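ARCHIVE CARD
Drawer: 12
Card no.: 0347
Subject: one protein chain, sequence and derived structure
Cross-reference: see card 0346
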Amino acid sequence: MTTLYDVAAIGNAIVDVIAPASDQFLDDQGLVKGSMMLIDDARAIGLYDAMPPAEEMSGGSAGNTIAGVASLGGRGAFIGKVAKDPLGDVYAHDMQAIGAVFSGERLVGGAATGRSLINVTPDGERTMCTYLGAAAELGPADVDPAVIEAAKIVYLEGYLFDPLEARRAFAKATGLARASSRLIALSLSDSFVVERHRQALLGFIDAEVDIVFANETEITALFQVADFDAAVKAVRGRAKLAAITRGAMGSTIVSGDDIHHIDAFPAEKVVDTTGAGDQYAAGFLFALAQGRSLVHCGRLGSLAATEVIAHYGPRPQVSLRDLALSHGL
């Protein structure tokens, strides 16, 4: 099978609605700072009405990663579910405009296109309330074999462990990827996802996953340990390769007995941490698809993450390819 894509990702197709917020606003709305909460349509409407003026842009974790791959000059494809409605039109257009392939049947006569209401406090922390809408209807029929078989790396968004049909889509995708000798990567996405699906995630990692992406909170939650070093020891025995982000402390890459600590790039300012993990994955996966060393992968991931936290929104606002070249990457 001809390789057409560096990365093909499967995830929630979500439009992000991002606004500044105070800690008091979070308390008033009953929101847990730093969390991701699934909400219904009525709650989404009520919270949206309470939020100050916001920026709206195409998002979703895996979609953001594909946007980063494209910004680096890579070839990406995204499989997600949107409705046949105005927001769905916007989402599909945005993915195509960045040079990525958007794959997935449009939902007609059902739920609206999903949206994530993101409140960002002055410290840059984001609190997300997500109405999945049409995104939750993604299933095996949306997984195009031609897309999966043509990708060097297949990247799966952990948020999709919530809907059963999406897990079936994962099963189809991993079967196709294995048959085509493609790498399979999984993002843990959120510690609350890990708490809900710990055993299923561990089983999936053992059986199917080559590369695990997580932050420090997610990886310690997965193995139910309080110490980061204990989590590193645990993941070493379960995953072939793990990339663990630690905010300002950089990242740690675990590959068998080899452990690489990657420094974070200095950030002049932290405006919004939304998308930092997504862009780290973009840089890492793009470099890995090019056959670069694990240290190079981590450094490119760190650089992409530093760019995205300097502004509102989860996708790059400058060419990551040019930024990487300016840093010798």
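Annotation on reverse: The longest helix spans residues 191-208. The chain has one domain: 5-13+60-110+134-326.
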